[in-house]
Amino acid sequence: MSAEYLFYWSMAATGLGLVLIGLWGVLTRKHILRIALAFTLADTGVNLILVWSGFLPNRAAPIIDSSVTTVVDPLPQALVLTSIVIGVAVAALFVVVGVLASRKSGSADIRHMKELRW
Amino acid sequence: MLSNIMSILLTVFTALVWGLLLGGISRTVTAKIHGRMGPRVTQNFIDVWKLFRKTSSIHHGGMFWLAPMFRITGAIAVLLMVPVVVGQNITYNMSFAGDVFLLLYIMFFGCLGMALGAGNSGHPYAVIAVSRGLAQMSSYELSFSVAVVAIAVGLHTFRIEGIVAAQQAGISSWNIFRFPFASAGALIAFLPMQMAYPFGIVLAPQEIPIGPPTEYSSRFLSLMFSGRALFSVAKLLFFVNLLFGGASSWLSLLLKTFLLYMYTVVVSSVFPRFRTEQSIKFLWLVPTTLALVDLVRVML
Amino acid sequence: MVKALAVFLPLLGAFINAWLPGKHSKASRFVSYTVLTAGLAFVVLLSIQLGAWNLADLSNSVIFHSGVGSPPLSINLEITAGGTLAALAMYAAVIFSIHRFALHTPKSQPLILAMLTASLGLLFATDIFNSFVFLEIGSIATIGLTAASRCGSRWEAAIKVALVSGLVTILYLLAVAVLYRSTGMLTMAALGSLSGGAAVLVSILLLTVIVTELKAFPLAGWGLDFYQGASSNVAGLYSATWSLAVLMWAAKVLPLLPIGNPIIYAWIGAGGLVLSQLAGLRAGSAGRILGYSTSAYASLLLVAAGTTTGAFYTRTVLVLMVFSSLSKFSLFMLGNPWKNRGWSGYGTVLMLIPVLLLAGIPPLPVFWAKFAFLKHLALHFPVVFYAVLAGLFLEAVYLFRFWADRSEKISVKAFSKPSAVAGVFIILVAAIWITQLWWGQLDFSGSIIASSTLRNIFHALFAAGTLLCLPGVFKRIGSERNYWFWLLISGASLTLLPAAGNGITFYILWEISAFAAVVGVSKGTGARNGAFWYAVFASFSGYLLLAGILLSRGSFVMAGLPALLMTLAALVKLGQFGTHLWNVRTYPAAPGTMPAYLSGTASKAAVLLLVAVALNATGGALPWGRAMAWAGALTALAGAVLAALAPDYKKLLAYASVSQIGYILVGLGLASILGWTAALYHTVHHMIFKMALFLGAASVLYRTGTTRFNNLGGLVKKMPWTFAFTLIAVISFAGIPPLAGFGGKWLLYNGLVEAGWLPILIVAMFASVVAFLYSYRLLHGVFLGQLSPKNAHAKEAPLALLLPQGILAASIMVLGFKPTLLLNILVPALKAIPGLSGLAPVIQGDMVLTTMGTWNAWMVGIMVMVVFGIAFVFYWISGHKPKYVGQLDIGFAGEMPPSADEVHYSNNFFRPYTRALAFLPRIHAEKIFCGVSKTFSMLGDGVRMLFTGDGRTYLAHSLLFLVLLFVFLNGGM
């Protein structure tokens, strides 16, 4: 397996690993900010996978000049930009809401935010 | 047409006289059993006449006023629905117009009127008596209905003439022998129907100190006495036709009704009184079960 | 291109608004309204251009790109005809509600506009990645709006939405990556070209996302918490815009998922529907209840996606989702807990319309979609059909309870007048529009009752019953409100009922009459509880009827299960089998002449149904006739005993009504000519006397303000005519000759003996004897005995109430003396029905003969009248004229009687009877129902334990769902 392919698969594996770590963190952490962090982690993993989906081994980055003829698919990279921007916005909102919610309940523990249930 | 009217008038008159006389006899017999002298046999006639001639100065309202009329109308209606003498079609009066079901239901006409009058009197004891009476009535009617249905279905007719006609083949064809259990049930139900002890609770409120008949006086009371006598005879007549083969002559009619009446008088004199709920339970249980035996027999 | 402004104008408004300084709320409001109006205008233009008004064909669409390049970089929208209708609903909801935000939280206007844009974008998006962007904008707007409201639990609600949308983002982007990797495309159509492992992976990822976003059971937890925690303004706006958009989007994506057999959607949906609605029974807060209802509609969508396709699918989903979202919007807006000022009579009705919409009651639009959909299910997916029906009934139960509990608290001011009017107007127009579209199914050409005689009898019965109730409608007391309109609607549809030519027509008229009556009942004093019980039992019987009709595959009814279901529907409507609870709670609660209508007239609809079922299914003899007769006889007995012990006039009459209708069942169960003659004779008779009695009760209530026996008595002096008419009715129903009631009993007993059903005969006879108890109780408790000083002012009933009673009493007399008037019509008609067994009664002049009995009502009547007349005249002319004395002048053992109230015997009236009955175990129907409801509650409690309130649980649910789906799909392949 060439280095390119190694890179190719390790990118997918890293992405998936980050997603799984993120989900594990989301499910097991109790502190609201840690959950936010876990989400960001998973988000990063997802973005990696998204980039991976357009990755073609042995091709250059899609910066078009005369010398480059074979580039990777530029589309996912464009999409990832959108996704990252949205991810930042969501993460910011999450942290804000989380901080305010923990002020309201007097604790940043998500187990204490169970007023609404059943 | 004229003879029909004559027959109706004759039936009503005879029933009235016979009913009052039977009442007098019962009073005498009861007194003898109690070891008292008791009133004369004709005392009821005297009472009715005396009361009839007096006038009542007060009344308690329209229904109070109408109740004796309901009472007497109901009694006469029942009387006229039953054939009097078997074979003498002229004495069948109005019985062609209905069957046992009609008879069962028209018997309530007088009772209802009476109850309404009692209610209108505004006297609480009268209403207590009515509530007890109705409660008890609903229970003996159960056993009585079962008995009547058993007999009627067994004989394949609801028509009273038909029931009588089916009993004309000698004493053994009388329903009391053909349907002994139903008859026993009906005869037990007959006691509360006649307000006889041990089912005489309806009359109790008048002893508490007073009751419906006391709120009624003079001519009202006279009519109620007459109505009661008529109703009593009508029921006797019905029972004779239902269980004892009807009457083939006036003489046998008097005899059979007399004996049947004496049965209530004798039982009545020797038994103490049930509380209402006791009598309700007894009537639901004993006579109904008896009558059901024959009903099941008929169904099978 | 300019049409895309329909979608993006709100976004423009949002940007402008966000830059405006917060103090200038006037300016921002101006901006909001301007962009909204302009956007709405574009949508209207689009919808006209696409022919959206023709619901039959919603496939028209225009596609356009915006932005740079081609999708997915640019935004690619496909505006469909159906979508424009949903967009209209969204715009309408925002325009109606934005002023409330503008007042309280002016800063939230940009968020609202952003949410609208996200909703519109999602509605029209055809690209998977575009959808992602809109999904994120929607989530952000939802979180922001929730957090910006003034509700105490807003943070918690917002954090849960944020948690779930975080997970959704991850799963969704994973699906996007896999999709792009395998196909190189991101359009929705590309989903179809997936295969193998990628197909499974994308399917389970997207299905999990969709079910989570839809808030369908079992992934509904976060949505329920959100609805409960968000302010009602936010929740209302959310359900009309974002929630609707997600539903429509899911409807678009679900059929495209390469999941193999889409029936899996139906299983998830049907199972989820039943379970979530069980849990919904136990929900407490308004928001949560409506959340469960949202979940129900999400499940319905899944079922629809799994079982239907093509134009039918699009249309069904569109109607169901748009109108349910709008209804929830109105309910949230009406149920605003901040503004519980004052209360108005309109509130009850205003709130009932959306509830009826959600419950799918005809002729409201949701009904049509539900009906077509359920018909489809009944034909092809019977198990799913039963599950959906059960779920829908459970939903109806808690929605009606929600209405009964809340409608008093709502304020019409909260739902400001023009918008209320506009909302009602939209709903009604939509109703008419959709109704005319499907009008072809309504059929009055050939009635389901083939015999024109029977049909005319029922027509006359319903028309007369309604008309006789009408004069008294304005004689209301206390806080009773105007109900004549609803009485009229209900009566009119009942009058049409016998002419119905097919099942659907029958069902529609049946439901309209029932639910118009529910509204009528709710106008009574403190009657919402009674109306609730009526609504629940009416919808239960309605669903049974609907199931029967739908399972009959086009004919009105088929023998077997459909006929049984429809029989049960009639029995529930009649109040048999322990379902009498609703009669006993509804009749006393109903205002004015309403109970007379319900008991006397409306209950006969169920008799009509039984007749129609018997005639159409088997030609007369239903296989369960005997069981029905037993049920009728036992109910007659139990009803009579309970009536005798009832402490209230109207309650007594309600029990009496239950009891009397038992006889009708016995007669119909006989399936002989005699039995049916008895049943129909008694039907006519019951209508007459029960109306007279309830009108009497209405008169007494009108004059005294009470129906408790403790407070009544002695009214014969004050209301002699009412008493006289009541007396006639009582004598009649007690079956005492010579009035009409005896005829029914006589015919019935003859029929029972003919059939040899003696045990039933005995029970029926016993019940009729017990009837004497309550008939006397009624007369004495109200009219006889001592007049309470409290009622000293009472007068005779007004003519409007008295006249109908007089007419009814006169008919009782006529029918009593000349029953052959009716029998001569009935008997030939019944003889012509081949399915009925037995011999017909022979009518010779006034004489009626059966094989065993005779009855000559005319002669008996004449005899009684003559004897009575002679006694009366004799009495009268004998100069016996006693004076009337005061009511306390009674022989009271020499004592002065205390006050009239103390002398009036009213408590514990049939004491000996109660004592004699003491040996019976006290099984109350109420307790049985409590048991049933407790069982359901326990089940519901068990289900809702899933929703722990911990946000992470909901994430775990979604992931678990994903894993299970994976296992299931791989196992299935």
Sequence-ordered SSE layout with sheet pairings:
The complex is a heterotrimer of chains A (118), B (300) and C (973).
Chain A: H1 3-28, H2 32-53, H3 75-105
Chain B: H1 2-34, H2 43-53, E1 58-59, H3 62-81, H4 100-120, H5 124-155, H6 160-165, H7 175-178, H8 180-193, H9 212-215, H10 218-243, H11 250-270, H12 276-299
Chain C: H1 5-19, H2 25-50, E1 61-66, E2 75-80, H3 81-104, H4 109-124, H5 128-148, H6 154-183, H7 196-214, H8 221-229, H9 232-240, H10 242-253, H11 263-280, H12 286-307, H13 310-334, H14 345-359, H15 365-380, H16 382-406, H17 417-437, H18 452-469, H19 484-496, H20 503-522, H21 528-551, H22 561-574, H23 581-589, H24 594-602, H25 604-617, H26 625-645, H27 649-670, H28 673-704, H29 720-733, H30 741-755, H31 758-782, H32 799-817, H33 820-831, E3 842-844, E4 847-849, E5 854-856, H34 857-877, E6 883-884, H35 900-903, H36 911-916, H37 925-944, H38 951-972
Antiparallel strand pairs in C: 1-2, 3-4, 4-5
Helix pairs in contact in C: 1-2, 1-4, 2-3, 3-4, 3-13, 4-5, 4-10, 5-6, 6-7, 6-8, 6-38, 7-38, 8-12, 9-10, 9-13, 10-13, 11-12, 11-16, 11-37, 12-13, 12-16, 13-14, 13-15, 14-16, 15-16, 15-21, 16-21, 18-19, 18-24, 18-28, 19-20, 19-24, 20-21, 20-24, 21-22, 21-23, 22-25, 23-24, 23-27, 24-28, ...
Gross morphology of chain A: elongated
CATH class of chain A: Mainly Alpha
Strand order of the largest sheet of chain C: 3-4-5
Number of helices, where a helix is a run of at least 4 consecutive DSSP H or I residues of chain A: 3
What is the CATH topology descriptor of chain A? Helix Hairpins
Mean pLDDT of chain A: 84
Unreliable runs of chain C, pLDDT <50, ≥5 residues? 337-344, 411-416
Distance separating the two termini of chain C: 45 Å
Q: What is the number of independent domains of chain A?
A: 1
Q: Note the beta-strand portion of chain C.
A: under 5%
Percent helix of chain A, as a range, is 55-70%
**Global geometry of chain C:** elongated
Strand residue percentage of chain A: under 5%
SS content category of chain C: mainly alpha
Computed CA radius of gyration of chain A, to the nearest angstrom: 19 Å
Structural class of chain A: mainly alpha
Could you explain the architecture of this structure?
- The complex is a heterotrimer of chains A (118), B (300) and C (973).
- Chain A is mainly α and 118 residues long.
- Chain A is built from 3 helices and no strands.
- Chain A has one domain: Helix Hairpins.
- With 300 residues, chain B is mainly alpha-helical.
- Chain B has one domain.
- In chain B, helix 1 (2-34) crosses helix 10, helix 1 packs parallel to helix 11 and helix 8 (180-193) runs antiparallel to helix 12 (276-299).
- Chain B is globular.
- Chain C has 3 domains: 2-438 and 950-972, no CATH class; 446-622, no CATH class; 624-832 and 886-920, no CATH class.
- Chain C is built from 38 helices and 6 strands.
- Helices cover 70% and strands 2% of the residues of chain C.
- Chain C is mainly alpha-helical and 973 residues long.
- At the A-C interface, helix 1, helix 2 and helix 3 of A face helix 5, helix 6, helix 8 and helix 38 of C.
